[in-house]
Design a protein that fits this description.
256 residues; alpha/beta; Trna Endonuclease, Chain: A, domain 1; 3 helices; 23% strand; rod-shaped
Length: 256
């Protein structure tokens, strides 16, 4: 009885073991099948990724090509427009330059005419006042023996510099010298130049008169706002035209 029972148990154990082995083999087969499926999915995924990458690269290349073509087109249009603008600008500059040259030439010609008129007017003023003084030979109540115009002289300074002077009207006798500066319009600066520079230069250029009494005057057809005041305050005589006559203010003269 015991042997039979033992035999049945052994048999049962063997059957169980065999079943477990069969189940294990089935599970192992399932794992391998799953691994194969995973490898297949990975392969499919890699294939899709490669395809997407290829499609993406192809699209990017296409977009880059389109972008480059558009940029080249825009650059060409921009260059053409810049060339057009440069041509228009150069044309305008050339026209403006031509106008400037024309206006400058006209201006120089006009300036020559004005300078000529001014010079002529100044010479007329000098001649007018000279003839008046030559007839009377009187200035500041003093009678002069000689009345000369356009009196010129030079003097070499110790440093070698050459002074050149021109004096419109000079009157002199044995004791006195009168220097008259003539302008078409007398400016305040003309009075200042006469009393500070011209009289000093005259004494250097003509030392034979250096010990004489010097009297100064300005003559003009018109005077600026402060010229007469400067002359009066400086003891400089004033000669101006009144109608057809020369009016002389010389009672306030001082010796220079």
């Amino acid at each position: 009885m015991n042997k039979k029972k033992l035999s049945l148990n052994v048999e049962k154990g063997v059957l169980t073991t065999m079943k477990n082995i069969a189940d294990y083999n089935q599970d192992f087969a399932s794992v391998w099948a799953a691994m194969d499926r995973t490898d297949q999915l990975i392969a499919e995924s890699n294939a899709r990724m490669e395809k997407l990458n290829a499609e993406s690269k192809a699209r990017m290349d296409e977009l880059n090509a389109e972008s480059k073509a558009r940029m080249d087109e825009l650059n060409a249009e921009s260059k053409a427009r810049m060339d057009e603008l440069n041509a228009e600008t150069n044309k305008k500059i050339a026209a403006t330059t031509a106008n400037i040259d024309k206006y400058y030439a006209e201006f120089r010609e006009t300036r020559k005419e004005v300078n000529g008129m001014g010079k002529s007017y100044g010479m007329h003023a000098e001649s007018y006042f000279f003839e008046s003084l030559r007839k009377t030979k009187i200035f500041g109540g003093i009678t002069y023996n000689f009345v000369v115009d356009d009196y010129k002289g030079t003097h070499t300074l110790p440093n070698g510099e050459l002074l050149v002077g021109q004096f419109d009207i000079v009157m002199h006798n044995g004791d006195s010298v009168a220097i008259i500066e003539v302008k078409s319009k007398v400016q305040k600066e003309d009075v200042y130049d006469l009393i500070t520079r011209k009289v000093a230069h005259f004494k250097l250029m003509f030392p034979q008169y250096a010990d004489k009494k010097f009297y100064l005057g300005v003559a003009g057809f018109s005077y600026d706002k402060y010229a007469e005041e400067k002359a009066l305050n400086s003891g400089v005589g004033i000669l101006k035209l009144t109608g057809e006559n020369v009016e002389i203010q010389d009672r306030h003269l001082i010796v220079y």
